[in-house]
Amino acid sequence: MKIYLTHTANGPVLSMQGRLDTSTSEQARKEIDNLLQNAGTLSSLTCDLAGVDYISSSGLRILLMLAQRCKPLRLVEVQPAVYDVLEMTGFSKMMTVERALRVMSIDGCPVIGKGGVGTVYRLDGDTIIKVFREGTTLGEVQGEITMAKEAFMLGMPTAISFDVVRVGNQYGLVYELLQADTLSACVMRNPQQLDHYAAKYAQLFRQMHAIEVPSTSAIPSALEHEREAVNHVRRYFSDDDIALLMRIVDAIPQSNRLLHLDLQSKNAMMQGDEPMLIDMGEIGYGHPMLDLGHAYSAMMALVGDYEAITGLTEPMAHALWQRMLDYYFADLTPAQRQHREQQMAVVAKVRNFSWLALSDSFPEAVIHTCQEEFNVRVHQQKEHILQVCETFNDWTIDN
Predict the structure, then answer these.
(1) Fewer beta carbons under 10 A from the terminal one: N or C of the chain?
(2) Whether the Cβ atoms of residue 256 and residue 396 lie closer than 8 Å to each other
(3) Distance between CA 390 and CA 381 in Å, rounded?
(4) Could you give phi then psi for residue 180, rounded to 5 degrees?
(5) pTM listed for this prediction
(6) Which pLDDT tens digit goes with each residue over 74-96?
(7) CA dihedral of residues 282, 265, 106, 75 (deg, nearest 10)
């Protein structure tokens, strides 16, 4: 049995390698006592069990001793056989226990989608994997799973992954989707069917926006998330700029409808003829104009490379979006439809710049481009923006 203590930026880590059984546990306990005494007072401890493939009742007593001496105690990289024992004996209820993740490779796998939070690869005919950008925490990945489950239970056609994996030093989610492809790829491959795919696209939006999120749900407020994002990009813009973006956000009416908040065409999947969602990291509840405004910012008013971000050429993205709105607003007159588009376009101006909150490591050139665009898209249109904001409350939602 090998045992050693290291000090990291996130605190002390006690690593073990070998079998924690009757023959090794007494010596292991003595070594751990010695290491902890030399380390002084520890307010917390992480125990790395990646190298432990077996644990007996005597080994469990060592973990119990650690839990009593070091609170909180986290057990990480726990191998499946050991994890099952900890679950069965109730140890997972007394301390944080994190199962070791399966390691996967994406070498040679084609990219089928790429966004601000990660990249989606095709593993084989039945499965895809979403690899999150470097720096994403395990908690953020598990949060996306939780949100996907919440949306699924509310009635959305959402693929749910129960398999969190490691891909190098990044996290990934594996989904079973039979012969699925992004909506963008389907449109580019079959442009003559754009009208059909636009109808499916509108179906996703309408289905989501008909769902009322109950107060007991874990799904967060989209407006609060929007305010947090605007505050996060304060470092890039003046106080007056941030105040103007906040005036737009504050004008958006309250509501409790389910919103995706990043439903541009590359974030929707087609499995056969069924539209589905896999990217649920930003979902929230609120008014549909916020959801449509976010998507408008990508499909019609993108700051960046259309093909890289949406998977479509700019003319194709515009055509798909306009046809989608024909279906979404089928009950409105042309004048009413035009008014709704004006409102969406104003809300989109927030997303055009708040998306910088997705990462703190964007290149200076990207930040500079956004600052230049702010002058054109916001400063020069300030009076129009404020006038449109005053009309937001006329966008009522039918029950």
Answers:
(1) C
(2) no
(3) 15
(4) -85, 150
(5) 0.79
(6) 999 898 889 889 989 988 888 88
(7) 10
Question: Which residues contact residue 112 at a Cβ distance below 8 angstroms, ignoring those fewer than 6 apart?
Answer: 120, 121, 122, 128, 181, 182, 185
d(CA 34, CA 28): 10
Q: What CA–CA distance (Å, rounded) separates 204 from 96?
A: 38
CB atoms within 10 A of CB 127: 16
Tell me phi and psi for residue 22, to 5 degrees: -60, -35
172-203, pLDDT tens digit by residue?
999 887 678 889 999 999 999 999 999 999 99
DSSP assignment letter at 253: P
The single residue listed with the structure tokens 């470092």 is: 235
CA–CA separation, 103 vs 110, rounded Å?
18
184: helix, coil or strand? helix
CA distance 197 to 273: 9
Q: What contacts 349, CB < 8 A, 6 or more positions away?
A: 245, 248, 297, 301, 377, 378, 385
Q: What are the tens digits of pLDDT across the range 6-22? A: 988 778 899 999 999 88
- Let me know the angle formed at the C-alpha of 315 by 310 and 321, rounded to the nearest 5 degrees: 65
| Phi and psi, residue 268, nearest 5° | -110, 140
First CA to last CA across the chain, in angstroms? Answer: 64
Going by the DSSP 8-state scheme, the letter that residue 219 receives in this structure is P
Sheet strands (E) in 106-218: 111-114, 118-122, 127-132, 163-167, 170-176, 180-182
Do 208 and 259 touch, CB atoms closer than 8 A?
yes
* 369: phi then psi, degrees, rounded to nearest 5: -60, -45
